[in-house]
Amino acid sequence: MATDLTQEFCALRDTYIEKQFGRLNDMQRQAVFTTDGPLLILAGAGSGKTTVLVNRIANLIRFGSAHGSRQTPRPATEDDVKALRNAIMTGTAVPGWLDGMLRQNAVRSWNVMAITFTNKAAGELKERLRRMLGGEEGDEVFASTFHSTCVRILRRWAEEIGYPRSFTIYDTDDSQRVMKAVYKDLNVDDKFLPIKAAINQMSRWKDQLVSPEQALASPAKDTKGALTARIYAAYEKRLKEAGAFDFDDLIYQTVQLLAEHPDVREFYQNKYRYLLVDEYQDTSVAQFRLVSLLTGPERNICVVGDDDQSIYRFRGATIENILNFEKLYPGTKTIRLEQNYRSTSNILNAANCVIQHNTERKGKTLWTDNGEGDKVQVYTAENEQDEASHIADVIGQHLKAGGHLADHAILYRMNAQSAPIESYFTRAGIPHKIVGGQRFNDRKEVKDIHSYMSIVANPRDDVRLRRIINEPARKIGATTVEVIADLAGQEGVSMLDIISHADQYAKLSRAVMPLLKFWQIYQRLQDSLETRTLDEFAADVIELTGYKAMLEADAAKGHEDAADRLQNLGQLVNNVKNYCDQHGEEATLEGYLEDIALISDIDSYNESADQVVLMTIHSAKGLEFPYVFLIGMEEGVFPSEMSKYSEADLEEERRLAYVGITRAKKELYISNSVSRMLYGRTQRNEPSRFLREIEPEYIEETRSPVLEQRSRFGGWGDSYSDTVPGGASGYSGPSGWGRSASGYGNGYSAGSRSGYLNREYNAGESRGFGSAYANRGSSGGHGSGYGRSGGSTGYGAGYGSQYGSGNYSGAAQKKTEKHISFTGTPAQKPASAGPKHYEPGDIVEHKVFGRGQVVAVKPAAGDQIVEINFEKVGIKKTMANFAPLTKITAEE
DNA sequence: TAGAACCCCCTTTTT
DNA sequence: GGGGGTTCTA
C-alpha cells in the first residue's frame, strides 16, 4: 500500500517538477533533467542555451535527480500525495514539510561549477541564477571564466609549482616586452623571426600542452622551429623568475598543477561535483584537459557548444573537442537544440544559407516560429562615409518610429572599421559606444601606474619594473638598467633587490643617487599600501612617483593630451574605488590587478545606456540586438585578406559571418562599400562571397544613389539603371547632410535582384562626376546638375532638397514614404550655401533625432557646438557643420 | 641622457 | 592614417 502511494507520489512529483520547467521545449527539458553523467548539448544560435544552463543548475539544486526517479527519501503518505496534487492543481508552491520529498540527491549550490568564456557570460549566468534561486543559493554557485578559475586555483597552490602566490598576470604587451628581452639575450633578429610569430607559436604550444622541453626535443621542421623552441624555453624561464603568468600560462600551469598533484586534483573533484562548460566549441586542448582533470569519477560533466559558432580556431580552439568528448566520455548523452527563439525566419534562413557552404560541420538546421519578418537589407555604399551615413539614416527612421538607440548594434570584422562610423556618429552627435579596441587599461599612463602597483604586490616583477623605472624620467638610463639586470642575474635576486642597496656596487656608482631615490619612493609606496585604503594607495602612486607632476608640467607646456592623461588617471583611481566598493573587506591589491588583467571591455558594456553599440563580431558572440548592422561585407575585409588562401580559415570566417547574422532579432542590415579607405589606402573591394551565398529570396538590395548616378553616366560599365523600376525614387526627405546621399534607398531595389553582387567592378573613373560630388557639401548649385539626368525621375529633386533648408515640404518630407514619384521637374535650388549658422531659438531638423530647438551655441574651431533640445530625445550637442542638421527657417 | 624629428611599421579576431 | 619605436642631435 505504501509502495503504491510512493509510486503515485513519484509520478505526481514528475508532473510537478515538469511544471516548474514548463516554459522550456522538449529538448531543453531533456537537457535539464539529464542530471548525471556526461552530457553534450549542441545548441544552435539563439536556442536558449543560457536558459538551459541556468535551469539545469536550478534543477540540480532544487530537485537533484528527482525527476524520473522512482525513489523518495521516505515512503510517501496520503497527505503527501494530497498536498502535492493540490499544489499542481492550484499552481502554488508545496508546503514546507513536503519540500524534502521533492528532492532526490539534490546538489548543494557550492558543489556546482560553471565555466564560461567571458566574464560577461559568467556574470549573466550568476545574475539569472540569483533571480531563479534567490540570492544566497544563486551566489554560491561558482560561475567563472576559464582564466579566472585558473587564477583562483593558482592563488592557492602556486607555490606547489614554484611560483609566488602573489604572482603577476602578464598581458600581451608584457609578453612582448619579455620577448624583446629574450631576443636580445639569444641574439635573435626579429627580421628573421618576427616577435609576433614567436609569440603565436609559443601560444599554440601552450594551448596544446607542449612544454618547452618537449618543444626543444621534438624534431624541428626548420631552423626557425628550433629557434622558437629555444625562445619559448628562455621566455618561460624569465616569467618564472618574475613570478608571472601570461594568459596561456594560467591554463597551462593549472593543468600541470592538477596533473602532477593528485591531492590538489582530488580536492577540486570533491568540491565541484557538477561541472558545466559553456562555449565548448571554443576550448583548446589545454582547456579540454583542464575540464577533464576537474571532472571527478562521477563524470558529471555537461558541455554546451555549437560547432557552427567556433570562431577562435586561430587562438588554439579546436572543434575536435566536441568530437573527442564522446570518445573520452563513453555513454555521453547528446542533445541538439535547434529551435531558435531569437530571430525572424528571413534572418535565420540567411544564416543557414551561409553556413551551409561549410563542409566541416556536424550539421544542424535552425528553425523558428517567429514569423518571416522583414527581408535582410543589403546596401552597397560608395565609400565608408556613405556606409556610415546610411546607417545613421536607418537608425534615424527607427528613432522616429519610437525605437531606441540601444537596440542597434554595428558589427564589423576588425576594430579599425569602427573609426569612420565613430567619427561620423561623433560629429552627428549620435550617442554611441565602442566596445573593444584600445582598452582603457591599455593606455600608456594607466599601464604605467598599474605597473607601479604590481611591483609593490610582486617585487620580483622585473618586466614591469623596467617599464617604469625611468617613467617619469629620473636619470636612470638604459645602461644603468642593464647593469642592474646583470647584477640581479649573477646574484640570482630581483632587480629591486639590487636597487635597494645600490650603493654597494661600484658599477652603479654613477647612478646611486637616483636609484636610492627610486628605492625610497618604492618604500613609501609599500608603506602607503599598508596604511591606506586601496584607492588612496592608487592616488599615492600617481602622486609619489612624480607621475602627476610630470603630466601637469606637460599640460602647462601645452601638450594637448596631458590633460586627458591626467583625467584617465583620475578615472583609474575611481575604478579602484569601485573595485573596493564591490569587494568590501575582501578587496586586495592582487585582486584588483587580477581584475584589470582579466576583465575586458565587453564585460563593462552596459546595455541600459541608450547608445548605439559598436563592436567586432567576436565581441558580439553571445549577445543579441533587435537591429544589427553588419558592415564591410567585402572580399578582403570579410572574409579577411589573410584567410583567402586557406579553406579552413575561410570556413572560420564563414562561421564568423554566421555568428554576426544570428545576432539580429528583428532586422538585419548588411552593407558593403565599393571603395574603402583602410590603413591609409583606398581600396576597391568586391562584395563578400558570403553575400552571394544568401538566397535572393531572403534579401532586398539597395545601392547608394551616387553609384546609381555613376552607372547612369556610364562610368561603371553596364546599365544598372535598367533594373530600376521607373519612377520609383524612394526619396526619403531632406537630410541636409553634406557628405551623404541619404535615404534614397529602397525604391531602387524594389522587385529585382540586380545581380550586381556578381559583377566585376572595374576601376572606372568617375569623371565629370567627382567634382560635383566633392562640392556637394558646401555649394548649392549642383542640384540642377543631377536633375539633368532626365529619366531618373525625382533624383535631382531629391538631391537638391538636401540643401533646400526647409523650403521643401509636403509628402516628400515624410521619411516613411518610400515610393513617392517625382515627375521630371528640375531640382530645387538650395536656399543657401556655405557654413551653417545657428542661433538659440532656431528650429532644426536632425536626421536622426528629428525636430528640436536650439538652446545654446558655442563657437569651436571654425565651427559651432550647437545644443539642441529635441522633441523626442531631449538635449544633445552636435557640431553645426557636420551634424545632419537642417534649419527650419519658416515656421509652418 | 633627454627631447624631438623622423621613419617605419602595421593592421584579424581576444582571455 | 596613426601610433610607436628608433635614431639623431643638443
From TrEMBL:
PANTHER family: ATP-DEPENDENT DNA HELICASE SRS2, UVRD / RECB / PCRA DNA HELICASE FAMILY MEMBER. It comes from Faecalibacterium wellingii. GO terms for molecular function: exonuclease activity. This is DNA 3'-5' helicase. ATP binds at A43, G44, A45, G46, S47, G48, K49, T50. Its EC number is 5.6.2.4. Keywords: ATP-binding, DNA-binding, Exonuclease, Helicase, Hydrolase, Isomerase, Nuclease, Nucleotide-binding. Residues 22-344 form the UvrD-like helicase ATP-binding domain. Belongs to the helicase family. UvrD subfamily. SUPFAM superfamilies: P-loop containing nucleoside triphosphate hydrolases. It catalyses: Couples ATP hydrolysis with the unwinding of duplex DNA by translocating in the 3'-5' direction; ATP + H2O = ADP + phosphate + H(+). InterPro entries: DExx_box_DNA_helicase_dom_sf, DNA_helicase_UvrD-like_C, DNA_helicase_UvrD/REP, P-loop_NTPase, UvrD-like_ATP-bd. Residues 345-622 form the UvrD-like helicase C-terminal domain. It holds the Pfam family UvrD-helicase.
